[in-house]
Amino acid sequence: MAATSRYGIAALAGAGVLLAGTVGWKLMPHDAAPPPPPVENSVAPADPVAALQAAVHQKPDSADAWMALGEAQMAADNAAGAVPSFHRASTLAPTRADAWSALGEAMVKADPRDPFPAAAIRAFRKAAAIDPKDPRARYFLGVRRDLDGDHKGAIDAWFALLKDSPPGARWAADVRRTIEQVARINKLDVAKRLAALPTLDPHSALGTTAGAAIPGPTPEQLRAAQSLTPSQQQTMVAGMVDKLEARLARDPANLDGWVMLMRSRMQLGQTNKAAAALDEARKANPGATARLNSEAATLGVPRR
Question: With contact defined as beta carbons under 8 Å apart, do 82 and 70 qualify?
């Protein structure tokens, strides 16, 4: 049981990358209006959270605005600050599964003592009751089963999540990794089930990782924060890109993250920073140089 507890805490710590970075935050579609390109090597952007806090003061009854603020706080590693934001969103829109599951995730990450507080379980169960296919709620409810000692049940739940996930779901690789870790710790054989899953291909019909857009709130969330000026929206996006760069400094093995950073820097007109990101990515992952070079070429990142 001690091993399970140690794993569970580690899994929950990693879940922030899995869910706040993929399930919670969505990718801005290519048809979303791009921000005006900034001057290369411009002054560091202001805190995007502050801009969204101003937005919720302008629209205190907008669940979308509170969701955008909570997600930005999660991206800034401020789970404790995100809890009241998501709580407000779930109060304003009690039938939104994503508001409840986001609240549960924030509660999990915000509590320094309890790796899975009872209030978080209630939030995830509420989300699952509203939408049984909510991926964040399903993932964390699986983690709860693992912490309770039902390792096979947890793995079954995660396999079911993968089965229902759309092709190219960005959380698929992380869910697989969680399955592998839990199975290895608890000596469960999942090799055949993993082999039967669709092959993960970063160059599939959905496009390469380099084809993704700058991470940020959905267009709906941006429209909800109508008090933001175009320059404030630009600042918010640029700030999240800087947060991504900071996360990569802590997790340099995240290849998709490096490609996303290069893509984002190129979209922001920061070609020198994109080239620097390529250099850092290759230095940290020498075995993935070919893939990184290919992705960089797709993006038009200058070679140095």
Answer: yes
- Measured between alpha carbons, how far is residue 109 from residues 102, 104, 133, 149, 233 in Å? 11, 9, 22, 21, 27
Q: For residue 152, what are its two tokens?
A: 């096979």
> At 60, which amino acid appears?
P
Give the tokens for residue 275: 């080239």
The C-alpha atoms of residue 34 and residue 266 are separated, in whole angstroms, by: 12
Write the CA distances from 235 to 37, 167, 240, integer angstroms. Answer: 11, 32, 9
CB 274 within 8 A of CB 301: yes
Residue 10's SS3 state is: helix
pLDDT at 20 exceeding the cut of 70: no
d(Cα 256, Cα 208) in Å, to the nearest integer? 10
Higher-scoring residue by pLDDT: 30, 86: 86
